[in-house]
Amino acid sequence: MIKPHKRAGIYYLVRRVPKDFAHLDTRGIVRLSTEIAVADDPRGVRAGQRVQALNVELEAYWRGLRDGQSAEARMRFEAARKRALAIGVTYETINDLLAGKIEDLVERVELLVDRKALESELDVAAVLGGEPKVSIMLSNLVSEYEEMKKAELALKSPNQRRKWKNPRLLAINNFIEVVGDKAIDRLTRSDALRFRTWWLDRIVEEDLDIGTANKNLGILSRMYRDYNKLHQMGLPPIFAEIAIEGEMDKQRAAFKPEYVEKQILAPGVLDDLNEQARAVLWIVAETGLRISEACALDSTTISLDGDVPYVMVRPNGRQLKVQHTARDIPLVGVALDAAKAFPNGFSRYHDKPDSCSALVNKYLGHRNLLPTDDHSFYSLRHTFEDRLTAVDAPEKIIAVLMGHKHQRPKYGEGPSLEQKQRWLQSIVYKPAKHAG
User: Fold this and answer.
1) Which residues on adjacent β-strands are paired with residue 313?
2) 26, 334, 351, 374: most buried, per Cβ within 10 A?
3) How far apart are CA 107 and CA 93, in angstroms?
4) 384 near 390, Cβ under 8 Å?
5) 3-state DSSP helix/strand/coil percent for the chain, to nearest 5?
6) Structural domain ending residue among the three candidates 52, 68, 84
7) How many C-beta neighbours within 10 Å does residue 395 have?
8) How many alpha carbons fall within 13 Å on the CB side of residue 16?
9) Which stretches make up the Tyr recombinase domain (predicted)?
């Protein structure tokens, strides 16, 4: 804890500028007045509190200087890199060029001469590597990574972007907790191994799943690798082969179809569940849609007017899991009842599938409708696939209805709505009549 210093009857914060910031703040020793007289606070209680606050502000100031300089340097480096590509060469720093073949350096100088660009600072910096490679602090990596992935993220809904960002923030924050907030080019293999050991200890002491640790390690590794590749940092692969062995594939259990029909879909069982959540459950049970796909339905993707009522799984303001996820699914049984009740979709859960899933899982759990801990709302989708398998549906039909990739090359239009409807009618649930 920083203690207040007395000087001329006033309490001060006194700090030596840290080595990492000395090139940005040349004061050497920083003295900031608390404006609290020693006579007014003889024990230094208020002064101690003020000194801590001033210290927080001072460190924030230093970080701001560093981040501002780093941002400016990154902009210059990116401009040079892009200009080099436009001229027709790959960007390399002057140090890399000097360490390479002299012929390559001469060739670049001749290129500038031929272009009559020796007077252009931008062209010279681009071709002869005038801008050093830039690094960033770990604490800034996620925001930088967002910028790198902005084209991909533009396709995602706000909820999808949140779910994309949060695991990356978690991975970075965990890593910083172990190794500190370091510049990415200062990271070492030892840092990566320390992080792996930290996870190993947590797995043992907190009974965590190995898959959770490997997901954290994998996310961190990808961000490091992608940043390194884009900015041509030439960093060593410190996260290579770092995954923890022993991870088990966990697959959600499927309900027995008769259990769904007689227990979950029985009249009265879901009456206390709000109408929209109940309708989403009916659609998932009868069509095999993912919960997120059902929650995203609206008036543009629910069609009830034709001979075959159906729903369309489309991006519709969100990113589909993969391209073949887009599909048209006929509505039968309770799914048709749900769509008729909510032809404009489920506004309460639009882009909020996690809220719907959590509510339904809680509801089913409180009513002892989850046979094991491995069962959940999502298990209805696994049950849907099992029901199709039980009636010997062709693999292509199953793949098309589930939104899975079919292994054979795609020819023609694929199964028609009428064909898909016939298969769905062959497995339709037949609970007692629902009241509404």
Assistant:
1) 327
2) 334
3) 15
4) no
5) 55, 10, 40
6) 68
7) 13
8) 3
9) 250-424
Do 39 and 64 belong to one domain? yes
Domain that holds residue 264: 257-426
Same domain, 367 and 288: yes
Select from 127, 152, 170 the last residue of a domain.
127
Residue 23 tokens read as: 């090139």
Residues 219, 167: contact at Cβ < 8 Å?
A: yes
Residue at 187: amino acid letter: L
Nearest-angstrom CA–CA distance, 232 and 235 = 8
Q: pLDDT tens digits, residue range 267-315?
A: 999 999 999 999 999 999 999 999 999 999 999 999 999 999 999 999 8
Can you tell me which residue has the tokens 């022993």? 246
Tokens (6 digits) for 322: 């993969």
The pair of structure tokens assigned to 386 is: 């099992």
State whether the Cα torsion 85-88-93-99 is positive or negative: positive
- 351 domain residue, yes or no: yes
pTM above 0.85, yes or no: no
Contact 145, 223 (CB under 8 A): yes
Indicate whether 13 and 98 sit together in one domain.
no
Inter-CA distances, 232 with 77, 225, 370, Å: 10, 10, 51
What amino acid is encoded at 363 in this protein? Y
Provide the terminal-to-terminal Cα distance of the chain, rounded to the nearest Å.
65
For the chain, what is the domain count? Answer: 4
Looking at the fold, whether 349 and 278 belong to one and the same domain comes out as yes
> Is the sign of the CA dihedral 407, 408, 409, 414 positive or negative?
negative
Q: What is the DSSP string of 213-251?
A: HHHHHHHHHHHHHHHHHHTT-----TTTT-PPS------
Whether 326 is in a domain gets the answer yes
Sheet architecture: strand order including 5-7: 5-7, 10-16, 29-37
pLDDT digits (tens, 9 = 90+) for 215-273: 999 999 999 999 988 877 788 999 999 999 987 666 668 999 999 999 999 999 999 99
Contact 377, 364 (CB under 8 A): yes
- The reply to whether 252 falls in a domain is no
Residue 397 φ/ψ, nearest 5 degrees? -60, -45
